[in-house]
Specification:
This protein is an alpha/beta fold. The chain folds into 2 domains: 224 residues, Type I PLP-dependent aspartate aminotransferase-like (Major domain) (Aspartate Aminotransferase, domain 2); 92 residues, Aspartate Aminotransferase, domain 1. The protein contains 13 helices and 11 strands. It has a 7-stranded mixed beta sheet, sandwiched between helices. The chain has a 4-stranded antiparallel beta sheet with strand order 8-9-11-10, covered by helices on one side. Helix 5 packs across helix 6 and helix 11 runs parallel beside helix 13. It is globular. One of its GO terms (molecular function) is histidinol-phosphate transaminase activity. Its cofactor is pyridoxal 5'-phosphate. InterPro entries: Aminotrans_II_pyridoxalP_BS (IPR001917), Aminotransferase_I/II_large (IPR004839), HisP_aminotrans (IPR005861), PyrdxlP-dep_Trfase (IPR015424), PyrdxlP-dep_Trfase_major (IPR015421), PyrdxlP-dep_Trfase_small (IPR015422). It catalyses: L-histidinol phosphate + 2-oxoglutarate = 3-(imidazol-4-yl)-2-oxopropyl phosphate + L-glutamate.
């Protein structure tokens, strides 16, 4: 375990002193038949299900189910309104506005930068190498006494590849700030999750989501896994009832269907391989990048014109052709068989094939 890591040093003074809001459900534990503590509507709600009571502020039933699935204790799990809430809390907990800085490794997920700007935190960018891997020497050059967070998305968005595991471990071992590994697409990857390394690295925070493989994007439930001390800070900062009862109920129902999700993952990976093969055979496609995600990055001739032609046919992909290191590229999500066939057909038609 890296003994140079000092969570107390990293945590902002105002957060150390913060007395979190104490909700009615925080103050009472156990069962009760008469609830007159939270100024709720005692008559119920005008819906088939009663939503008149405030939800569990710590979502313990959901966390218990996640523990069964992932083997991670509840005290090491934070649930947020999407992963975006966890990203924002990381800035608010550990980065002093106008003083501290974070390291981002573009091209990467855009919310890291947006959240840094909202929180007035300096961004230091170290581009990935030409093969979309970490440049360890340049990252080391950018780290100073005020560097609090390093964000690494693996599998990476928008490139789709996994980041070299040994490189990530090098940063975890040698950086005395917090390393955030965003594993939104880990279910589609050949690489194992870093959740297995939580006991080894005190400075590790892992982000995952139910929006991708689990198909629950509309419910907005993100997860952060870390030491119980870091998770306690997350829970101190979050709003008292950040995950509503409807979401908790539906997520619990979905988490009973692991086999269904695993089948979808296998189908998605198979469709991804088909899509890669078909696109690689088109002469005007310059490169199809390896992917461990549920999307592929494709470098092609006239990417913007292809994008516009697809939009005209009602097919929406993501134009990444202006993103550094992704010049000339479209990002295409892996769809169902007929959707993938349609997008390939329309691209061939554009190139008059």
């Amino acid at each position: 375990m890296d003994m140079s890591f000092d969570l107390n040093r990293l945590t902002r003074e105002n957060i150390k002193k913060l007395v979190p809001y104490s909700s009615a459900r925080d103050e009472f534990k156990g069962e009760a038949s008469v609830l007159l503590d939270a100024n709720e509507n005692a008559f119920g709600s005008p819906l088939p299900n009663d939503f008149n009571r405030y939800p569990d502020p710590l979502q313990l039933k959901v966390k218990k189910k996640l523990t069964e699935i992932k083997g991670i204790p509840a005290e090491n799990i934070f649930l947020g309104n999407g992963s975006d809430e966890a990203i924002d809390i990381l800035y608010r907990a550990f980065c002093k506005p106008g003083v501290d800085n974070v390291i981002l490794v573009p091209p990467t997920y855009g919310m890291y930068e947006v959240s840094a700007n909202i929180n007035d935190v300096e961004i230091r960018k170290v581009n990935l190498t030409a093969n979309f891997q970490l440049d360890l020497d340049k990252i080391a050059d950018q780290i100073d006494g005020n560097t609090k967070l390093i964000f690494i998305c693996s599998p990476n968005n928008p490139t789709g590849n996994s980041i070299n595991r040994q490189d990530i471990e090098t940063i975890l071992t040698n950086f005395d700030g917090i390393v955030v590994i965003d594993e939104a697409y880990i279910n589609f990857s050949r690489q194992k999750s870093f959740t297995q390394e939580l006991a080894e690295f005190q400075n590790l925070v892992i982000l995952q989501t139910l929006s991708k493989a689990w198909g629950l994007a509309a419910l907005r439930l993100g997860m952060a896994f870390s030491s119980k001390e870091i998770i306690a800070i997350f829970n101190k900062i979050k709003p008292p009832y950040n995950i509503n009862q409807a979401t908790q109920n539906l997520v619990l129902e979905a988490l009973e269907k692991v086999d269904q999700v695993n089948n979808w993952i296998r189908e998605t990976v198979n469709e991804r391989e088909w899509l890669v093969k078909e696109l690689a055979e088109i002469e005007q496609i310059e490169h199809v990048f390896d992917s461990d995600a549920n999307f592929i990055l494709v470098r092609m001739q006239s990417p913007r014109a292809v994008y516009d032609a697809l939009v005209a046919k009602g097919i929406i992909v993501r134009d990444r052709s202006k993103v550094e290191l992704c010049e000339g590229c479209l990002r295409i999500t892996v769809g169902k068989t007929e959707e993938n066939q349609q997008v390939v057909s329309e691209i061939k038609e554009f190139y008059n094939l």
